[in-house]
Amino acid sequence: MNIILLGPPGAGKGTQAKILEENNGLKQLSTGDMLRAEIAASTPLGQKVKAIMESGGLVSDDIVIEMISGRIDLADCARGFILDGFPRTVAQAEALDSMLAQKGKKLDAVIQLVVDEAALLGRIEKRAAESQAGNQGVRADDNAEALKKRLDVYNQQTAPILPYYQQKGTLIRIDGMAPIDQVTAAIAAILQQSSSGGCGHHCGCRHG
Ligand code: AMP
Predict the structure, then answer these.
(1) Which residues make Cβ contacts (< 8 Å) with residue 110, sequence separation at least 6?
(2) Which of 4, 10, 103, 204 could be a cystine partner for 120, CB 3.0 to 4.6 Å?
């Protein structure tokens, strides 16, 4: 089962992807985590993207498309994958479609976590405080200034992929402001519906 989780920074994509990984054996593919690993290892790619990521901008489509294309072929994605933070532009969404078609794979659900933007700074600040308390290192872009840029980038460059999936009839919106376990349950219901052959819209249709 292959899923996309969509939503602005702080919507809960990473939290839900980790739960799905544990509960369903799907592999979380977070382009942000992959890029942060490149930065931590000080690879040429990491050095190239560091300043862009810290400021809250997007790295180029080519970089992330290639990253994902190589990653979904690996054995740990055999049961399926959860895309977290990808696609982030219409060009990435289009590239994903053609790469999946080439590989004979398909998307089972595109799930949008709908959240109230006003709550996101509080969530990001909480994540930063928790990382600090756990000695995990705070993300360089988890601060008010970078978040503002990340939200602007989301609204300008990422939000247009919502109508892209809506037109295809694959977008399912759920309430991302609900408690974590309720969001998990809502996603589980969608996946259940999807794996039983329904479209995931709770409408009883079976157009896949
Ligand atoms: P995230 O961990 O998903 O919040 O991503 C952190 C940062 O990594 C973003 O603000 C971008 O700079 C970069 N990034 C992650 N995924 C992508 C993507 N699909 N396209 C472009 N940049 C990305």
Answers:
(1) 3, 4, 6, 165, 170, 171, 172
(2) 10
Residue with tokens 């109508």: 163
Which mutation among 15, 59, 71 tests ligand 1's pocket best, with the greatest number of atoms within 8 A of CB?
Answer: 59
Residues with CB under 6 A from ligand 1: 9, 30-32, 35, 52-53, 56-59, 64, 85-86, 88, 92, 141, 150
pLDDT number for residue 206: 42
Contact residues for 172 (Cβ-Cβ < 8 A; gap 6+): 109, 110, 111, 112, 190, 200, 201
Six token digits for residue 117: 């933007």
Rounded CA-CA distance 79/81 in Å is 7
Residues of the chain with confidence (pLDDT) below 50: 200, 202-208
Ligand 1: centre distance to CA 196 (Å): 33
